[in-house]
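Prompt: For my understanding, could you write out one protein's sequence and backbone structure tokens?
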Amino acid sequence: MLKEISLAIDRYDRHFPFFDGTLDVPNSLNLTVLQAGETSAQRDGAHRHKRMLRDGEFDAAEVSFSSFIMGKARGLPYYAIPAFPRRLFSQTQMYVPTGSNITEPAALAGKRIGLQSFQTTLAVLAKGDLAHEYGVDLKSVTWVTRANETVAFEPKPGWNIEYVAADADLGIMLADGDIDALFFSRAPSTLETGKARRLFPDPKAACADFFGRNKFFPIMHVIALKDEVIAANPDLPQQILDLYGQAKSIAETYMDDPGWSQLPWARMAREEQSGLLGDDIWPIGFAANRANIERFIGYSFGQELIDRQLDPEELFHDSVLKS
């Protein structure tokens, strides 16, 4: 009898094939796909990262790339596969109060910046970009963060970190002037009310500029599998990676129909994106993502979330390193 393998993922468009029965799942794999959110509850609950990385609730799951790297540096008995279900440019996720005169990242030196947590992947990316791309000394900033770190860590000396309540509304803190900027993986509550705006006057141009220099769309999440589950199912890493390849091919056809999305210009937006960034900014496989992975490990090390700079190969199971 086949062992049932649980896979917990969010409900993005690129994951629809996992939920709607359109994947060709091999007969040797008995896969149960759970719809689990992180910051919001889905069909199978919320807090997916902690449920996987702390509690080991699933056999495989989509998790924070930052927290996964921190876990691996501390001996977490998991490996990843090079499928990355969530990506974001930090340039679209940096916010300031509407009336602020800050219009460029360099002006954030010495300011107070809000974060979901110090190790949230978007926070690590945005901090890393602030230093690497825009020359800001991260230790000049006061980081105001909610006390909900997935992987426990003790900040090294020299960092200015203030913790607020885990349920604090960072968007309201931004509008009220308690913080000068906010690096946030969602849109803050005050964006739609007109009390917050994006830092960059032209965020798309800033993203295109970043992509032009670096040639990648930054990784946010990765698929992690327990070592013990891989040991019992040696083909599992490649099987799930192959399913991600299938899902990607299927999801890429969705907007062939210009009426597929509720957004009336979604198809044209994809055409514009392809003109700016090329046709494939979501590559699957280790080789195509190595520079992206290496950059993020460097950001984690530079922010002293890990004690050594891991090699990218250390994060992924040997069976998928040639992908």
